[in-house]
Amino acid sequence: MISTATPSLPKSADIPSLAEVDASFRSVALFFFAKAAFWLIAGAFLLLLASIKLHAPAMMSGAAWLTYGRLAPAGWDILVYGFAGQAGFAVGLWLLARASMQRLQSSLLVLAGGVLWNVGVLAGTIGILAGYSTGRELLEMPAGAMACLVVAAGLIGSAGWITFAARTESQTYPSAWFVLLSLISFVWFGSVALMMYSGEGPRGVMQVLVQRWYANGITSLWLGGIAAATIFHFLPHTLNRPLASRSLALIAFWSLAFFAPWAVTAHGDPFPRWIISVGIAGQFMASIAILAIAMNWWKTAEGSLNALLASPGARLIGLAAVAYVASGALDLLMAFQRFSSWTRFSWMHQGLDWLLVGGAVIAGLFAIIPDVIARSTGQALSPGLVRLHATLTLVGVSLIAVPLVVGGGIQGARLSDPTMPFMDALRASMHLVRLSSLGLVVFLLGQFVFAFALFGVFRSLVAACATTVRTWADPVSKNRTAGVRS
Amino acid sequence: MGSYTAPVGFFIALAILAYLGHAELGYHNGQFSPGVYEPYADLRSIPKSGGEVNPVDEGRVVYAQLCSACHQPNGSGNPANGCPPVAGSDWVLEEGPARLIRIVLNGAKGPIMVNGKEWGSPVGMLAFKDALSDEQIAHVITYIRQSPEWKNNAPTVTAEMVKSVREKTSSRGAQWTSDELMKIPTAVE
Amino acid sequence: MNSTPLLFLGILIALASSWWGVLVAPSLQIGNAPTVFSKETGQHYPANRPGLAQQGAEIYRSEGCNSCHSQLVRPEGFGNDLARGWGKRRTVAQDYLRDNPVLLGSVRIGPDLSNIGYRMGAGDTNAQPVMVAYHLKHLYHPRTVAPGSVMPAYPYLFEKRPIQGSPSASALKLEGAFAPPEGFEVVPTPEATALVAYLLSLRSGVSLAEAPVPPPPTNAVETATSSTNAAPASAPTR
């Protein structure tokens, strides 16, 4: 334990109760999760369309905005920015506030950031579908939309740091560190990338390095940081036992923050040899973090794995933990020349993305979201729907990610024979790609269930609100009631 | 928070990862030069370019790009569409290349006997006279005649030979048929 | 971890280190690389793309062709891109000097396109019309030339219109199920023409000092036995 110096804490009278902390999230939770749920459906729908078009390439080919090359990046960006980032901000702030035992500070900043964020996502999506994509992976949104996102993340992130600085709890938790890292990361990578691209911009392959540095940074630190934070919070919480080791978490945290952003290059890239070596070495070092994290979680859960099957939330967090470690392990394998020459450019690429974003981030967030909503608004999502949603999400994500990883392996194995025609190798893996389209259908259904459950919360909130208004209005004049309600 | 201490295995794994990272940078740094790319280790080991072109290797690339779709990468042909083998084919290994050059220049169609078996298709093989230069045609034919992978071994075809046949057949637009080709002497004058 | 400013500073230093190592240092080294003179072609390499091809690059970007196609050839020992005939040599930083944006791509649902301008046409000027016709047909509906292809069709880059007087010279020659109805013809829009010009401009075959077009072994048997080969000992064999 490292807690020695205690910052000057506010007087005990200022320490809010847990309920007060939760209640300070009411409007933020409602706003962020409603928007996120909408984007998740939209994103999954676009990705499903794109995936169907792989099987029927001439379908709906008359409209430019419906072409695969626009749908796929738009859908993925919506998933990442519209859902994962947005819901991640809300959940992250909540974890941070609870760990700091402090009400959310400057919630107006957060709401303003939320509005700007959604404007950015909307503009960016329209931009991509209309053909204004920059063509740079995860940075496809036109610069104006990206700038909105960066400023919004800055607003939201500063509220997080302000809340942390005003903490009334002297001990800090690993989940809080990872959230803080995540909050800085997007602003850092986004603003530097935007700045480097502005004006003349970098020449030649330097453009690729900037894009890779950004994409790798935000997936491993911004999204990965939130995923790690949710699991670090939820695992001990569900199992009702302490985290196995704080010092291991500390090692993991600093090795992730220091080394993960270096892992930007892959074998075979058109960069001078040393630049590739630096990236590969970074990947090896970043794997230390994954190893330490995996070990810590395992030691925490060992002996009570059954508890991870007990509730929908626990099952989701179990999936998230496995997916996080698995994607880290695949990343490590990719650092080896053999494995990389075999699987690079195959479906495994998409499989890996889904493992991290779909498995670790989305599943992890959904383990906590129902709790956040119930505690901050006082209205719980229908338990039946939450259970159904968790099951559909779990099955959906697994059905998407696993076939893509396996299909990538098959495709790569075929391609490693130079006499095997390219299209034959593709065809040999297409049935697995079809399976992952099915997974997308299941996943999408699940998100409709969630939206429906969330709608239920809104309805009861509106009803409750109406009752309040009525009881408030009643004493004044019984006749005015109807007027107030309408 | 627990006070679990990691087992020795963790520290060994940690040491291995750190070693791998270190070794990668130590042994694969290409002397941090902007001019060293995989697979070369340093500037000295990069061969000088601009040497003699090797027709077999030039031809291998042309073959992979243009012919392998039909004749298959291993030269076995494709019974499904009547595309005959080129590996070990008596047409390919014939001492004189006059017929062979004509096939690649103008294409061929209709039934054709290759190694005693009937192949061919009504659509047949397309002409490459517009797509390939004399030199490239010489390279690809030399490759199919001398491919070490297929153990073929017949004399080299030069760009001059292709040029002379091209001039002689310049007025011809149609694909060749097996019967027409059989009437032509195999040697190129 | 208990002091907020220290934690903030620590994270910032961690993040800044990668920025320096991954972006600043390489940029100092290769960020200003000049074009090089090639004896082989007697020109500076890479040359600027012609205007039409430059417009085509914009179409390539906006249609997201890079979601399925890569533009990089890996060296020997890193997958068999070379053995597949996707290039005469690996691609290096020099090849991308004039591209903006540089679209390496990260998946290959379709083949690599770094050298699609050489494939089939091989630089012969009289092959150009054949190649253009091929690519136009392929873009209009890939299955016209590649049965079973999963590449999307791009009919919106073409115009289907009634034939006015005599058929247009640029009309696609389509057969069977792909043919337009009687009395109609399919002609490429300027976008399609530009895109094809771009595809034909994709060529990275000029021999470079750092990536010579390999003067490879004269035959496979010799490779196995000779140790004095031009290729370095570290180069893995296929």
Write the element-wise H/E pattern of chain A from the N-terminal end onward: HHHHHHHHHHHHHHH
Biggest β-sheet strands, sense, barrel of chain C:
2 strands, antiparallel
Largest interface: A-C, 91 and 79 residues
Q: Give the overall average pLDDT of chain A.
A: 91
- How many E-type strands of chain C? 4
Low-confidence stretches of chain C: 219-238
The class by helix and strand makeup of chain C works out as: mainly alpha
How much of the sequence lies in strands of chain C comes to 5-15%
Kindly identify the CATH topology of chain C.
Cytochrome Bc1 Complex, Chain D, domain 2
Strand tally of chain A is: 0
Please tell me the overall pLDDT of chain C.
83
Q: Give the tally of structural domains of chain C.
A: 1
What oligomeric assembly is this protein in?
heterotrimer
Q: Looking at this structure, what is the CATH superfamily of chain C?
A: Cytochrome c-like domain
CATH class of chain C: Mainly Alpha
Largest sheet of chain A: none
Report strand order across the widest sheet of chain C: 1-2
Element layout with pairings:
The complex is a heterotrimer of chains A (486), B (189) and C (238).
Chain A: H1 18-23, H2 26-55, H3 68-100, H4 107-129, H5 143-165, H6 174-197, H7 205-239, H8 246-259, H9 273-301, H10 312-334, H11 337-343, H12 348-377, H13 383-415, H14 422-473, H15 481-485
Chain B: H1 8-27, H2 55-71, H3 90-93, H4 98-106, E1 108-109, E2 112-114, E3 117-119, H5 134-146, H6 159-168, E4 176-177, H7 178-182
Parallel strand pairs in B: 1-4
Antiparallel strand pairs in B: 2-3
Helix pairs in contact in B: 2-5, 4-6, 5-6
Chain C: H1 4-30, E1 36-38, E2 43-45, H2 51-62, H3 128-140, E3 158-162, E4 184-188, H4 190-200, H5 220-225
Antiparallel strand pairs in C: 1-2, 3-4
